[in-house]
Design goal:
It contains eleven helices and 14 strands.
Length: 404
């Protein structure tokens, strides 16, 4: 899930490990997961505190929102982290961890100001599958104003594909597409889907499968119903209103193998600091300095676990921390506690993340450069276990009112 490089099996090995993080031994269960290690967050991660003998206290979201600010042309910085409830030494520890990874850009935003940055946060590269969560944001206002009907079927929209879809497959709805439950297991134009069961074996709306055909067709459905190009909507509905600093409409383009599917991947190209603006818009329930760009109820609806972790497919994935919403990954079940209660994220291959953690009033944007290769020619990435270590150290940095 944390990177869309897949193997036929979710998990090939499980082992218990002890991770040394920020001066403390913290148990983390590591899984070799779709070709890379995945780490199940430990209890210590869910209950961070500067004082290890006390439980963390989180302010109510309403209180946090009341004190929020918005960036202008640039992000303002928090001069003294302690005033915002974070430790300077802890932030230095986060930087030290990032220096050991393939991270090329990292931004942490608290209350609308920059807590810390790392790397080149203005470098523009592709989002990989994090693009899907941005599409979810675009859907919101069109669903609420009636332009988009999530109950429309593929047949209603005239959606078909190479070789033809069956009548059963054409009954899948737009809602099925954005929740990865279409039951259409046609080849996608780009790689990255999970291994699918036979075509026709699952009724629409009943079976979750991470499937790029669904996601690409969702983009086509958006364009059909809104009569707008995705990238034009992206520019006018999100990029310009929130002041994305590095957005370039000309850089945005679709790609894929059109001999496999008519529906290409709507890849997006953003900087780390602009990804943070999108995350902050979500943290603020779709409101940007008084302007409601994404309906607040859509933010809530799209970031709940429509598919709980216990219903993920293939079944091996049910040991992880995530359920799935409307194109967002959502911390779910026993993992959605403490700092991770209500948290959700956008995830893209090799380490593209937009992470929203309402309990901490925190947004994290993380980037790598998939075009860079190591000495052996392998793509450089920040994998699941790397991300967990980064989050562990950062969350432990939070000390709330006790460090003021």
């Amino acid at each position: 899930m944390l990177s869309r490089v897949r193997t036929a099996s979710w998990i090939t090995a499980i082992r218990e490990s002890m991770a040394f993080v920020a001066g403390a031994i913290s148990p983390i269960l590591f899984l070799t997961y779709r070709g890379r290690r995945f780490a199940i967050v430990s209890v210590a991660l869910a209950t961070p505190s500067c004082n290890r003998h006390s439980s963390p206290v989180y302010q109510a979201p309403g209180t946090l929102a009341a004190n929020a600010v918005w960036p202008g042309a640039t992000w303002d910085s928090i001069r003294d982290p302690r005033t915002a409830g974070w430790t300077r030494a802890g932030i230095d520890s986060v930087r030290a961890v990032l220096s050991t990874k393939e991270t090329t850009g990292f931004v942490a935003i608290v209350g609308g100001r920059t807590l810390m940055t790392y790397g080149n946060i203005d470098t523009v590269t592709y989002l990989a599958s994090a693009r899907k969560s941005v599409l979810s944001m675009l859907f919101g206002k069109y669903v609420r104003n009636g332009t988009v009907d999530l109950n429309k079927s593929l047949a209603d929209l005239g959606i078909d594909d190479i070789g033809g879809l069956t009548d059963q497959e054409k009954q899948a709805t737009v809602k099925d597409l954005i929740t990865a439950r279409s039951g259409v297991f046609h080849a996608a134009s780009n790689a990255g889907s999970d291994a699918a069961p036979p075509r026709g074996s699952q009724k629409h709306g009943t079976y979750f499968l991470y499937n790029n055909w669904d996601f690409n067709a969702a983009g086509a459905a958006f364009e059909i119903m809104t009569k707008r190009d995705i990238y034009d909507a992206l520019e006018s509905d999100l990029a310009r209103p929130i002041g994305m600093q590095d957005f370039d409409r000309a850089q945005q383009h679709k790609s894929g193998d059109s001999t496999q599917s008519r529906f290409l991947a709507y890849h997006m190209y953003f900087s780390t600091r602009d990804m943070a603006r999108l995350g902050y818009l979500m943290l603020r329930q779709g409101n940007w300095n008084g302007r409601q760009l994404v309906p607040a109820d859509w933010v809530v609806e799209s970031t709940r676990a429509f598919t709980p972790v216990a219903e993920l497919n293939p079944p091996d994935g049910r040991t992880g921390p995530y359920g799935y919403g409307y194109l967002w990954w959502v911390w779910d079940g026993p993992h959605a506690t403490g700092a991770f209660e209500g948290a959700y994220d956008a995830q893209g291959a090799f380490g593209q993340y937009i992470i929203v953690m309402p309990k901490l009033d925190l947004v994290i944007a993380h980037k790598t450069r998939p075009d860079l290769r190591d000495a052996q020619g392998n793509t450089r990435g920040v994998w699941a276990s790397d991300l967990v270590q980064i989050l562990d150290v950062l969350v432990r940095t939070h000390c709330g009112a006790s460090c003021r």
